């Protein structure tokens, strides 16, 4: 099939590449000239495991190409995916300007039947809006489908190739059949393609993200309470995770959720509720708790240094909002580092992939280290913000040798508390006994 994808970020580029991998001819359109130039030169502009292999293979096979021309994209595709940003607006709602501006252009430029597929995360009613914006100018027939994306950064290729479900929100039989045909190679193992109305499809995505953010936040509250009463959140997690109604996943406490989706999507659903006089009380709490959780280690760090952090050097391991990505949007590391800088500390930071993005934001306010161990040299303490695998089994001897004091503040509970005690560390994590 002939497919076009408008917007080649984490979602668009993965969508385009994976659709090319199943034999479709894909044209990816992006407004960012430098990005398109990079991709034309065979460079993947983001870090996403396994994407490079598929990217290269499909470019070579002439199934995947890149352009800055929307016209070219619209001429090529019978199915046009919108994978455009829907960032948080000033009032917390989703900013639909990218989606609606491109839709307006689509209305002016399409010359024959197209299925316009919204893959961006958008509030209930956006399909209708997109439809009417296109209809204003369109001289041909078209359908609008809502097809929210559930891929996770860091696992995006796998998630796209083997989705647990595909959601198609459509009231057009013709468009639904085309979408089913397009996705059939991805659900051969029997995972469902669930067809529903557009509004329910749009809400499905927000409900999923809000539920997951709530699950994490609930565990963070349990962890905070564990600290007050001397219980161990690891034990509680193991205990409740075995209940199949609860499940083992997404129960790991830490310094809060971040990223380009959960924070903005939870706020957008909260705001969408307000617009129809519905107060999402649970989401109000999730937002408030998560915001506080991001800096939950700070009082503990302050306490260790007797409120005298000025002039101290802190090593930071992990800057991305989660492992296996270079994405730093809303990363808890940012909140912690900003607070530590305010207190006059010097920061030596390391992340396997996210340093260039952090550098763009912090410039020369941070010292960027070449390796995880280099970040420790002469530091007064180590703070861990992201659970990259390489941090999981460090050389404890080296840690003690390089740090001025053997002190670790672990925002992701990477290490066994008893091991750290035996090794002679001061070790502070989330929801577990501190080791002094
Ligand atoms: P992104 O910011 O990584 O990428 C967006 C891309 O769109 C950029 O390359 C940008 O240059 C391009 N763009 C902007 N305006 C354009 C225009 N007028 N024409 C062509 N290209 C244009 O965003 P993303 O993370 O891929 O997210 C896209 C959407 O998917 C959002 O609604 C997001 O909420 C949703 N989503 C994201 C994820 C994720 O893990 N990142 C997962 C599921 C859903």
UniProtKB/TrEMBL annotation:
Entry coiled-coil feature ranges: none
Domain of life the protein comes from: Bacteria
Pathway noted in the entry: Nucleotide-sugar biosynthesis; UDP-alpha-D-glucuronate biosynthesis; UDP-alpha-D-glucuronate from UDP-alpha-D-glucose: step 1/1
EC number(s) from the headed UniProt entry: 1.1.1.22
GO biological process: polysaccharide biosynthetic process; UDP-glucuronate biosynthetic process
A single GO molecular function term of this UniProt record: NAD binding
SMART domains with a match to the protein in the record: UDPG_MGDP_dh_C
Chain positions recorded as substrate binding sites: 150-153, 205, 250-254, 258, 322
The entry's keywords: NAD, Oxidoreductase
Annotated NAD(+) binding sites: 30, 35, 86, 121, 153, 264, 329
Reaction equation(s) it catalyzes: UDP-alpha-D-glucose + 2 NAD(+) + H2O = UDP-alpha-D-glucuronate + 2 NADH + 3 H(+)
SUPFAM superfamilies linked: 6-phosphogluconate dehydrogenase C-terminal domain-like, NAD(P)-binding Rossmann-fold domains, UDP-glucose/GDP-mannose dehydrogenase C-terminal domain
Domain annotation UDP-glucose/GDP-mannose dehydrogenase C-terminal: ranges: 315-417
Active-site residues, record numbering mapped to chain: 261 (nucleophile)
Sequence similarity: Belongs to the UDP-glucose/GDP-mannose dehydrogenase family.
Protein known as: UDP-glucose 6-dehydrogenase
Species, as recorded: Aequorivita lipolytica
């Amino acid at each position: 099939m002939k497919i076009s994808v408008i917007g080649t970020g984490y979602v668009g580029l993965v969508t385009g590449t994976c659709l090319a991998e199943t034999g479709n001819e894909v044209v990816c359109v992006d407004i960012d000239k430098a990005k398109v130039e990079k991709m034309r030169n065979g460079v993947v502009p983001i870090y996403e495991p396994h994407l490079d292999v598929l990217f290269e293979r499909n470019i070579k096979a002439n199934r995947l190409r890149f352009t800055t021309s929307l016209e070219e994209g619209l001429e090529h595709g019978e199915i046009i995916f919108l994978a455009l940003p829907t960032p948080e607006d000033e009032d917390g709602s989703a900013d639909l300007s990218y989606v609606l501006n491109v839709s307006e252009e689509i209305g002016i430029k399409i010359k024959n039947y197209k299925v316009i597929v919204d893959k961006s995360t958008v509030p209930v009613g956006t399909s209708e809006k997109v439809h009417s914006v296109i209809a204003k100018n369109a001289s041909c027939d078209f359908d609008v489908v809502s097809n929210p994306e559930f891929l996770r950064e860091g696992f995006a290729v796998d998630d796209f190739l083997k989705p647990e479900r595909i959601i198609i929100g459509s009231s057009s039989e013709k468009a639904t059949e085309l979408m089913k045909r397009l996705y059939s190679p991805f659900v051969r193992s029997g995972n469902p393609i669930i067809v529903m109305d557009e509004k329910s499809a749009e809400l499905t995505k927000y409900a999923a993200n809000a539920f997951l953010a709530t699950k994490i936040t609930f565990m963070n509250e349990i962890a905070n309470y564990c600290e007050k009463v001397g219980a161990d959140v690891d034990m509680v997690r193991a205990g409740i995770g075995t209940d199949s109604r609860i499940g083992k996943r997404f129960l790991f406490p830490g310094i809060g959720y971040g990223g380009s989706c959960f924070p903005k999507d939870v706020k957008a659903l909260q705001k969408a509720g307000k617009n129809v006089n519905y107060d999402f009380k649970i989401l109000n709490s999730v937002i408030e708790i998560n915001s506080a959780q991001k800096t939950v280690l700070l009082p503990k760090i302050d306490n260790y240094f007797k409120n005298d952090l000025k002039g101290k050097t802190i090593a930071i391991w992990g800057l991305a909002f989660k492992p296996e990505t270079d994405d730093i949007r809303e990363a808890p590391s940012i909140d912690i580092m900003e607070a530590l800088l305010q207190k006059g500390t010097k920061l030596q930071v390391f992340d396997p992939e996210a340093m260039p993005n952090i550098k763009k934001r912090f410039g020369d306010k941070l010292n960027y280290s070449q390796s995880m161990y280099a970040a420790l040299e002469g530091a007064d303490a180590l703070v861990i913000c992201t659970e990259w695998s390489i941090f999981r089994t460090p050389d404890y001897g080296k840690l003690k040798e390089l740090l001025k004091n053997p002190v670790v503040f672990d925002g992701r509970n990477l290490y066994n508390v008893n091991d750290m005690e035996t090794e002679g560390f001061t070790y502070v994590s989330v929801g577990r006994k501190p080791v002094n």
